[in-house]
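Anyone else keep sequences and structure tokens together like this?

Example one:
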Amino acid sequence: MGNVSAKEILGFDIEKRKVEFAKTRATHLVNDKRDLIFANINDTVKQTLDLLNKENVIAVPIFNDKNEPLAMISMFDIVCHIFLNGEDKEVMEEKMNDTLGSIIGEVEEHEHLTRFGPDEPLEKLAEPMSGAIHRVLVTHRVDQNDKPIYRMCTQTDIIRHFIHYSSSFPDVQKNIQELELAKTSLIDLVTMKDTQTAYEGFKIMKDQEKIALPIVDENGRLVATLSCSDLKGTNVDNLEDLHKPVIEFLREKNGGKLEQPVTCSEGDSLFLVMLFALSLKVHRVWIIDNEMDRNVQGVVSLTDIINKIRGVDEDLQSRVIGAFGKEAMQSLSKANVLISGMTGLGAEVAKNVILSAVNSVTLHDTKKAEIGDLGSNFYLTEEHVGHNRATSILKRMRELNPNVKVTATMNELSNELVGLHSVVVLIGSPTEESIRINNFCREKGIKFIKADTYGLAGGVFCDFGDKFVIKDPTGEAPGVNIISKIEEDGKIIVVSEEQISFGDDAMVRFTEIKGEGLECLNDGVPRQVTDVHPFSFKIKLSEAEKDLDFSKYVTGGIVEEVKLEKEMAFDSYESVYKAPFINDSDLSKFGRSIQLHAIFQGLDAFRRKHNRLVKPRSKEDIEEVIAATKAFIDQEGGYADMGLQLDEEICKLLVSGSVAVLNPIATTFGGIVGQEVIKAATRKFTPINQFLYLDSIHSLPKNIEELPDEEFERQNSRYDHQIAVFGKTYQQKLHDQKYFLVGSGALGCEFMKNFAMCGIGCGENGYVKVTDDDVIEKSNLSRQFLFRNWHIHKLKSEVSCAVAKHMNPDFHPIPMMERVMTSTENVFNDDFWNDLTGVCNALDNIKARLYIDQRCIRFEKSLLESGTLGPKCHSQVVIPHKTQHYGATPDPPDKHTPACTLHNFPHNVEHCLQWGRSQFVGNFEDAPDEVKKFYSSEDYIKEMKDNGMSEKDILEKLESIQECLSFQTTSFEDCIRWARLKFDEYFTNKILQLTHNFPKDATTKKGSPFWAPPKRYPDACFFDHNDVMHMQFIISATNLRANICGIPVPVEGNANRNVETYVPTLTEFQPPKFQPSEDKKIKAEASAEEGEEVNIPLDVEQEIQNIIDSLPKKEEVQWKMTPEDFEKDDDYNHHMDFIGAVGNLRARNYQIGEVDKLKAKLIAGRIIPAIATATATATGLIMLELYKLVSGRDVGADFKTCGEYRNTSNNLALAEFNFYDTTLPDTHTSYEEKIYPDPENHPEYFEEEEHIAIPDNYTIWDKIYFDLTPSTTIQDIIDHFKKEYEIDLTTLAIETKEKGKDKMIALYATYLGHKDRLNKSFFDLYLTRFPEKSLPPSDCCKWIIPSLAFERDEAVIDTPVIIFNIKEE
């Protein structure tokens, strides 16, 4: 490339550029550019071509009549439209008159036109450009009519600024080989010969979706480049020039000169490549082997450069990083994965791997798509039938994650192709090919995975080499405990706040232990533990440590588990496939995994012999597979030596539909295999121990063998695979399903895809209603795979329905935007629920799940429930009257940190960040919201009391209003001063007051040290504007205060983020000196009443009035406060900057380790780790249970009878899959209870109380109905229950809310002497007591649930829910 310096090219010394990269904004990139030239959607192709030539540009945006940009159209798009299909001149002239609106779907960037505001940071502009988007629009200003004036920002502009701030990016100094750019680009490298015409070259570019081609001579030497930009100046008159030899065409384009292609070698640094791309104005640099041979080895594009420099997108991948960690994500970003076989399973694996953000994925397939493939490969459409499966889905796969280089090839699976990758996945590969490639992979150190699905079964094989070292076998956070004391015998006791999570033989390290001779334990050396109990353990001491005197222990100490590496040895497929021992995941199917392995080998033998799969229900084919399976078992060294006998019944059921790739099986194994790829790439989590098999034979209809063969014949439809397994009658049942999907996030996206693939709700009478009130955010894109960048801020339910409908045009999704809750029961009414076939949850919180659970109980609907937490997932099927409901097994309560710990005695960074989050909420959400309410309310105090709020709570709200208004901020400088005062309040004064109240040598009432573990003695922080964290607090707090007060922020030149903006005000402002108060009391123990201070005024009412009198009057208020709405995923709104600064500075006060911004976001934002693999596995398993619901399979009759439904609890990190039978619903039976009135003094005395269950053995699913008419009296109700159940009604009450609290109102009660109400109608009593209500409650809810109490001879009567159905006379 020659010796040239950056200074010579750019005119400046890079090392002297010290301006922070993050300050660059969109407007900086386009200030020197001209205003955008654009075409109108109604313009013709000819007009647009003339515009391009007139302005000497190669692309312009298309605008609609509302001045909204719709798409980019390039010279290449136009040439493709009018010329590259071989049209004659007459047809071309006709096409020149086409309007842009009629061809917009052909335009490459019609879905990707991205717009940015002028103040958007450079990082945001770089994001789409790292995914092959070459240009974006930036709003430069608005005209006099408030219409935006756009300018264009290109990849070249981004590269220029990357060079400008190159010292901020360590990867720019790495060479091309280190970054593996040659390896990943060589896979789909396409060249053209110098003897071909330019027309042929552009045709290749169109067909292969390239924007440039290297031109090589007969010896393969690179001689030139053909790119889309070479079409500049093309018009109808010179289109015939494209038929000239490409070299002649290029010479004529460049005034008789052939420009030399820009090249580099694998040893060149990325920085050098950037310099030459910029200086020579090219969008790619070809990688060659050497200057002599000039063989093309790959290409570095501007997209590759931007992608590498940006690295892992922490905003996009925050939930994934939460599950894997940063180190694993860095390893993933270097992984190159080959996936061969684009069946439904291959597509699922590819989806999950691409979403995990590996470096590259190669899709390989030699087969063409058939109509049946559309039932599981979600990116295939009818247009793709007859075309290669890998290339057909390439475009959609690329859209999943623009930061992953996705390519497709239909070439043979050669060693050369395999050798370009670090992980290889074979889908449906024959045994011989699997052995060949596995052996090659072992030789080259490439991780190997083989996966197969046949109908309702699937299997996986993993080989990660002879010595595969796992860095983190479990992925669980290391256990950390605080030591409370060490006994003389060396027993280490930890505080009771947290149980010990590590076991015997774990390794731990110590810090902060204090005691003569014991501080040697703080050396960071891991030590083995022993004798572990929930709150104590011992350690194995070395010879040098055996004389340690633990009686010298004084205080302190933190023990942290050290994660140990684990080594696994894998055998080759060739050496183990004949008779491997395989554990069963479903213990009710003991020995099934070995049976499945043998059957799979029989199916493989059949396919090798006939070059096809088994025909559905073909007795001849099935018998041949059975024979082949038995031969496999009986071979030398096979399963016969272990005494295995083939289960022919299972074999027949499985083999009959083995031709099928079913969506649920593909989805389940797509998650499992995707996770194994991640393990191979990161060495995090424990891989499958070579083999795993799962099946769901019970998903078949019970009468499957009685059905005629015609049921399973091909229908030439996308459902052919499913029909081959279940029959066409069953398929129609799937079409007629009416499902309600609650949630359209990660689980919801998977379910929508699954429903569409299986044909759920695709019939004339079927539908899937999906509701979600949330909008799409950037962080969703890493796992909610239906969404793209251009969907951000759109409703999830609407987008998911539209995308799923595109996957299957037969699908009938109905989007809804309401949250399912009590207040929306007018929307989700009786008619809504009664029409449903079933309900599927895709929720992420317990409260919503429990509400849906209660609705399903009320309307007796089946419920499919699933969830994920990092690599863990579960699935549960709930069947009315046959299984427990979801809420029958409550989730453990969330851990609660006492307020005194958060306010004054934090001992981990989580406490500090929780406190930081509470300060954000208090200062920028709650307080300004209360100010707003106070000044907009007619009578604030009365409204609070009417809502059931106590005077103490009202006082606290008024105090927050008073504090919010105590420092008037009318300018940005005032906000700086306010932030400076807050700094002192939080990190200086608060700590000085605390240590004044409780000095370092303070003791408790019992005489023990006050600052004993887990308490940590704090030190005050004193403000220093040179401290980065101090200024992060000031800048974020200032901007947030300005936002809520409506004060303009100086954004010009990014001034509001520039430290220099703040220093003058901070220097001149002198906060008052703090003096600790002798009167202020601080709560020291969690047993005290919650709240930071314990001194509450005696006369609360007077204090309320005093605060009201001190506040500005309404007529004096000239400003409005606007509360912030916390959004953790916006890096530019100052929210996480504030919380992170508060948390870290508080940690600094207490000598607790600080965390980076991402870790702060994960903790304070309460981000639940989430990954696509676990989501896919959970939803796939649920779909198998849905099959069973439609089939009408049996539930176990008792605890001894194994049913056919399965709940699951799985941990992909450990490759643990646990299947268990559904649980029968709890029954209520009659019984006698012994009651001991005085068990301490008279334990011998008891009274017997009889409980009568009516009906006996009822469950939560049972109900008692009573028809209520306007004339029904209380006496009628009493008589009914006396006659039907021989019980006496004693109380009839209605549950309601008064002043925000639940309350029971008795309409009739014997203990209240309501005999006068016996002959009154229920309607009259109800409407008199509740005049604001009506009966029935609404047109769509014609029932109520009263609270009734009964007795029979003093016995307690237990009944199920009693529902009053309201009828007309």
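And example two:
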Amino acid sequence: SADFTYTSSGVESVDSETDGKTLILQNRRRRCLPVCSGQRLCHCWYVCQFLLFLLIFPLWVKWLLVNPMPRKYWHEDYGAFPLLAGDFDSEAAIREQMKPKIHVSPIPQSSSQCNYSCSAWRGYRTEEMNFRVSLTLNDSALTKAHAHTVYPVLLASADFQDWWVVGDRRFAHPRPFWSEHTAESGAVFARTSPSCTRPPKAQAMPLGLSGAYVLACVTWNPMSLQTLATKDEVSDEQLAELCNGVGGVCGWSCGSSHPPENLPGCNAQGRIEVTKTSLAGRSFSQANFEGQVTMKQCPEVDETGECLTKEDSFPNWKCHNCKYNPNEIEEDSFRRLQIPGIGGIPGFAGIPGIGGGGIPGIGGGADADAGAGGIDGLFPGSGGEDAESSFIYASLPRFQVSVRGLGQPVGDSFLSQPTVVILESSEQTPGKWQHLYKTYVKTRPPEPVDAAGDPIDQAEAEEEFDDEQIGPTIGDFTRYRMHFQEQNRLTLDPTWCFGKQGPLYLVACAVNGSMYRDQDFKGFVAGQKAAPPPFNDRCLEVSGRCAHACLVDQPPMSNCSSDGTILQSTLVGPVQWETNDSMAVRILCYMLILCFSLKVVLLCPGIFSGYAHYRRYDPDLTSYLRCINVCIPSWGEKKSITLRSLIGAVACMPKACECRFHVTLVDDHHREEMRQLLQILTRIIEAIPGFDGKFTTEENVRQFFHNWVEGTKRIDISKLRSEEDVEKDAAEYLSGRLTLETLRENTWSWMDRRHLQPLETAVQQLHQALRNTSDEVFDLHTDAVQDWEPKDRNALALRVHYLARSRPEEDERTVKSQHVAPGIYYYKVPQTAENSQWLHVRSKIKEMVYGLEEQDSFEQFVPIHTSRGLPGALNFAANYMYFSAARPQNLYGDDRDVSPYLFSICDPYHQYQPDFFHTTIPLFFDRSGDLNDEVGFTQCPLYFHELADELDYLDGNNAQFFRFHSMIQNCCGGVSAWDTNSTRLLHREDQTMMWTYERKRVREADRKRTAHLVERRSFPETCKVEHIASSVNQVLKGQHSRFINRRLSYGMSRSGTEALASMQRTAEGYVLFWLQSFFGRRQAFMLWLSLIFFVFFVVWLCILVGNISQGMLVVEMGVLQKNTIDEILEPMVDLFRNFVNMVGSNYFGNKPSLIKIYVTTAVEFAVWLGGLSICLLALFLVTECFKAFTACGLCSCFSVPNEMRHWARLLIRMHQTSHWVWGWLPAFWIGFNYWNVFADQTYHFNCFGMFLFIVILQVLNWGMIVSASMRSSLAAAMETNEVIFLSMDNVWRSTQSTYVTLPLHIYSFIKATEDYMRYHLYGADVTFEPPSEMSGHRTQTTICLVKYWTLFLIIGAVGAWVHYAFTMRDGEGALASCIVVTLIALDVLHPCTYLFVGQTKHMSDQKAKQLTWSQACFSTSWWSRAISRMVLNQTLASMIKWIGPACFVALTLLSLVMPYMGVNVAFMMLLGTSTY
């Protein structure tokens, strides 16, 4: 800080409150900055977020590879085979399945046992075969796992690698699923009832409405069976004695709505309540009922007529109609109906219907509501014998009685199989049971009929009689016996082929019935591919057989035991999760890592503390400078445009400047009107009055030019580019007439008009000169120099110079080299030449003629031009400043004669503001007010007032770079210079000669490279981008830069095509300079070192991300022992597991080992971050050592960085110069998404995980931007709104330019390579466009490339949607990519439209109204006007502008449904702010 006092000059000022006062610096003292401040808090916040970003982003990229897909996407390369929903990967589940639960019948080893008819070729049998397979299930745990219905699936393989489906439930019988799951519960005795119950008595009313009991009495005893079979009616007490087991159903059947529990002894499910000693709620002391007897209706039958039961309550049974003819049949027919063992048994009376007589006439149809009353009980029949006596009645459906757990019979007299007698009772006849079915001897049995009374073709499983067994007992047994069934056993007879005879692995898989209820699963297809083992992710139980099918010879097979079973350990095991680890995703991840690394290079400077500088302008600061020069290089711009820049250059003269202030106009075109214009401007300066004691000349000059700038800074360039002359109102401002009138009416109103007459005359002359145009040029062969200084040299520090360097016409046949060669102009420099002779010797130029080359050993030949472009003009101006300052009359006689000077470059299209140097000069001084030689230059941003960001279709403002990037880079002093608005600090000693020796780039005739004499250069002349070359040189010298985030210069925006051409030249210069820097300069090792470090960082991260094994990379590399890592990880895994359990997350429920993988990955990246920190610490120590050695004079290490911020600046310069190397990243992203669309690529990431990561990354990304903006705004209050507003507003432009300039980079690379070859091989001057391309060939090519490239992106987006709509892709990958390419198309919509129709002269509104619709449709002018108005308007631009920021929010939310959109958000976040 410093103490100041003000001494008033006694005059009111219009500039500011203190403008009329002299600022005097009394003394300086340093003050410690506060330990805690808002700026430092923002800095700490930024550093913390940067470190988290450095850790989390690579972690997310690896998560893309290692995180399991959602299960529904597993095995997508194979046929549809739904996975189990439960936990199939836990140790307990795997251990349980290690015991085979399915017994598979052996594979036949004889060709006679195989079926070869499953496949044929031209009618001939092939080697493909199949055979019958029996599967027996014995797994009691399935019911506990809620797998109530289990179906079989057969898989086959010939090599244990490729598997296919060869059978499923369609080929299983007696049922398509296992009815029981264990051998114990599967041992069932069953019997199926006939289709029709006993017909009711004639004219009997149905009794079913009153409720009924249907009971099955199971017995082993033959005597009990005979008693039950011969008695017409049985009591409850008799049942208790005769039956070993009972069970049945009760209630109102046939769809009745009456609750079955209304019947005594009947539960809500319609089952008779039975215990060991009770039946239907009544207890019997003699009873000892065993087993479980169940009844299930048979709504369907299989192909063989076997009953397919259905679990349903008795009221929901589907009743049907039966037709019965009571007339006796003829004798012959009767004999044919006799069945041995049954026909001759007396005593079989008619069996009454259910509940006292069936349910006649259920509405005439099987599906009619049951439980309703019959319709008179009888209906006339048709057909058969005596059709009129036939009647139709309602009957219960066919059902199956089964019993399990009956126990073994007791005693010596028992039947070989249990028998069952089906009885019925009703609530009207409680305790009395009658037969439900009747034996028909002389009449035909009833048959089921449909609604029309026609018989239904329903196959019944008739009992077969044993001819060898005769007698009454055997007859009863045959009629009532139950058959033993293994309901846990299935037989498959597939029609699909298993494969060729030979090695065969056959696997039986038990799948859950819920799989077939999945809407996305359409069933198995013959021979569909199946994923290889382990199968426990798809199968509840699995077992297998192996053998050489259908062959006698049985050589050993791998994974096969000696008894022909597949080793269970090969079928069951830990399931390898399906991840997105494919080649496409790996490439995507590596590209993300590369973009992330570029982003880190961009953001890492923000972790440093900025350089301190003097806080405000003090006139005393200028006493440390030799001079200040504002150079305006003109390249044929209109004089009105250049005049505006000259006005600003004079206006920014510092107040009370104690060194000379020069304004230099460098006119390479030698235009007479420019020289006259500058002469008139100097007359205006001379004519401005100055009065001692009232106003000084300097104050009046500053006041006049300050007002002049205010009137001209917002002039539209279109008003100055008129084909004839400047528009009238613009001429009034530019000539200064309005400025003079304003001052005369206000501040200068007290002045005598006579004192202002000379000024008014000079202003009128300037006004007249602006209205006149001339193409006259003067002598191009020699240098033209004109100087102006005030008559009183001490009254004003201002000096004005007109410079026009020699530009003789060169032979178009020769190479425009930077050394003396045939066709090149040169001048001679004697060995004893002095600096004062510089202009004199330059005036004697000659052209070297081939064959007439001069040879003079006493003089050196110097090329008149080593750069014909901007660098040459700047060097000529810098040399002239040094030449002029060294004149005796311009010496100060004090330390200022050896001080450095400021050289500021102002493009003719820009105008400096009056406070330009008031802001700039303090940045070159430290906090104590001493000149800081380590500051190389300062840079302020471009600003175009007339071009709103919404209408800046080709990003002419380029505000993203100048504000956000420079703000971050300023923290380490790494801001890049630009070709305008930059101020350099130039050093040159008095004894330094104007010439220096330089090694030629081409060899002489003797193949040796010699040194030649050239003029000394302050600006590099190796390429067109002098600013980046100067920036690199400053960094290599150890200097840093400063960024001024203020609008200190107002630019005039050129057309969009001119801005695009400027981008192309800049990109071309970057490529050329990169080639020159990395392959042609001696200090390139520092750039190479930075590039190697960057490549090492990228490769290291790629290896870390690409290592998807569960082990840590440090263990695999042998850095740490596995035991050590396990000891470290174990408590972390437990802690994370406890956290997961506490929050109740079920994400890890089915993947418990995933917790360890996540913890291992996080620790691995933390170790990586720690290793990176150690490397940086080592680099810091080495840097400090070199710094100490240099300070102590032990060694000279000026080319080695002496602080960490210096390394950061090297990384920035490496990134900037190597930008074209990474320029293909947008092309990759565009091509990748189009490939996804047309190749139907799909990537299945976890939705919630993607959403969580993207939210965190966006919070960190925008948090760093906000914290950096706040940090900068707290340092300079002016920056707050400007920085934040422009950063948010230019999100669109940053992503837009990324895609638009892609072909520009390719074209620039080609042209830059050509220039580099000319530069390296021939020593050609590449700082300007070759004469053959002066017509703008490269510009037109660039415009054409960008125009059709953007059109291709728009048409490509439309084509992508059309392709997606017609192909109807099932996955979401193509849809997500369609959205991405649409966003890209919206980004380039405005540039494309602008390049096609935005610059053409449109049809007037009046003419458009005169056109008919038919004329308009065929008028290109009308369409051009319509498209321009529809697209190129601020409303649409504002809407699309906010699509960019909105996408960061919308696409993040969309990632919850389409996780691939999260990857697009990441690319937008990286590409949009990592490019320049």
